[in-house]
Amino acid sequence: xxxxxxxxxxxxxxxxxxxxxxxxxxxxxxxxAPESLRxxxxxxxxxxxxxxxxxxxxxxxxxxxxxxxxxxxLRAALTPFRTHAALEVICGRRECGRxxxxxxxxxxxxxxxxxxxxxxxxxxxxxxxxxxxxxxxxNHGLLPWIELAQSGTTxxxxxxxxxxxxxxxxxxxxxxxxxxxxxxxxxxxxxxLTALSRGSGTILL
Length: 205
Ligand SMILES: [Zn+2]
Description:
This protein has one domain. Helices cover 32% and strands 14% of the residues. The chain is built from seven helices and seven strands; from the N terminus they run αααααβββαβββαβ. The strands form two sheets. Strands 3-2-1-7 form a four-stranded mixed sheet. Strands 4-5-6 form a three-stranded antiparallel sheet. β5 (171-174) and β6 (180-183) form a beta hairpin. It binds zinc ion (ZN).
């Protein structure tokens, strides 16, 4: 475990699942398509145009680093994707092509979270709920995906807590082929939205 493992969760993360957030999340879930339709391979044309609109919002903002992850217009543009099925992330090295991780949008911030594996099938309700959780939980003050990343035992590692957002903005992805990809939050959002704008559920690093 690296030095980052000794740090506690920033206040923004401890607030996860406060009543307001939970209510917002639940209303967003209810406004979307029936659950049976949310995990199909096909993406609607509405999602593609909404992804393009969100990419434009990101471009206007410049980046999604620091406190920009709380920008109101970018967060609003990302709302349609809060409960979207997690996207599969593939190693871009020629002759590898292994899956490295799954990415999903945070429930509130303009932030893309990641885990090596997904949640158990019954627990995959879209968005962050698609991401794996540590069993057993050891630190309930951390978001489950962050606890996994801090464990240092998966393909996803935290590369940066040192920013004013309270979120680990830079994440490192380690493939079994030896390739290492360090991503900014801006880059992850770009890749996530670009895939959806093309109707794809897969991201190539
Ligand atoms: Zn690889």
